[in-house]
Specification:
Layout: H1 6-15, H2 23-38, E1 43-47, H3 50-63, H4 74-83, H5 85-94, E2 101-103, H6 108-117, H7 123-131, E3 137-141, H8 148-159, E4 163-168, H9 173-178, E5 181-184, H10 190-213
Helix pairs in contact: 2-10, 3-10, 4-5, 6-7, 7-8
């Protein structure tokens, strides 16, 4: 991890001292995200219930500004203005650079069709198979670590040479023994684990934004 990013981790563990014990896991997972984005790859995210909402939340923080401006490159701004002087100028002003993140929970027509026609437990696996490419990262969020649809997606990820990061509760479950790295927050109650997931993924988003757009 870039040494410039350590203050984000320090602030996280200062505000949430019970996360100090898993600091190494948090950093190792971050390194996988950074490596993927350096190579112009993407993050695929899935979870159930509150973790489904977290999946969309993470994508939202990565695909536009979180805290700092992310203006488009001047060469792209100029190209927009050449194509359309009026709209292009406005787009050049308003567009923000993103880090590609796809929440697999967000495609209702496709997912409900697959659930109805094929397999309710395979919907994330099907989407990952369609969207995923070698070098991407799959972030599976499951407080138990045993969500069947998350595990099915993780197996497909491995077959596609996609790294797997788990975000779970203290036990880690099956995902904890399968993922390349699993961040196991020190809670077992579902809502309490979810309450710790949010500051962790906010920290990841801050670190990624700082690394790619803060220089």
């Amino acid at each position: 991890m870039d040494s410039r990013l350590q203050p984000h981790i320090d602030l996280l563990t200062f505000r949430y001292p019970n996360l100090k014990s898993i600091e190494e896991q948090i950093i190792t997972a971050y390194d996988l995200f950074q490596e993927a984005y350096v190579k112009d790859k993407k993050l695929l995210i899935a979870g159930n219930g509150g973790s489904a909402a977290d999946s969309e939340h993470i994508a939202g923080e990565l695909m536009k500004r979180f805290k700092m401006p992310r203006p488009v490159a001047q060469t792209f701004a100029s190209k927009l203005e050449r194509i359309d002087p009026v709209r292009g100028r406005q787009l050049a002003k308003n567009l923000e650079r993103g880090l590609m993140a796809i929440p697999l929970v967000a495609h209702e027509a496709m997912s409900t069709a697959y659930i109805n026609d094929v397999d309710g437990y395979g919907v994330f696996a099907q989407q990952l198979f369609g969207y995923g490419r070698e070098g991407d990262v799959f972030l599976g969020i499951s407080t138990s670590g045993n969500s069947v649809n998350i595990m099915n997606a993780a197996v497909v990820a491995r077959a596609l040479d996609i790294k797997v990061v788990g975000l779970t509760g203290a036990d880690g479950g099956e995902l904890g023994g399968f993922a390349d790295v699993t961040v196991k927050v020190p809670e077992t109650e579902t809502y309490m684990a979810q309450e710790l997931h949010l500051p962790i993924y906010h920290c990841w988003c801050l670190m990624l934004e700082d690394y790619f757009f803060g220089r």
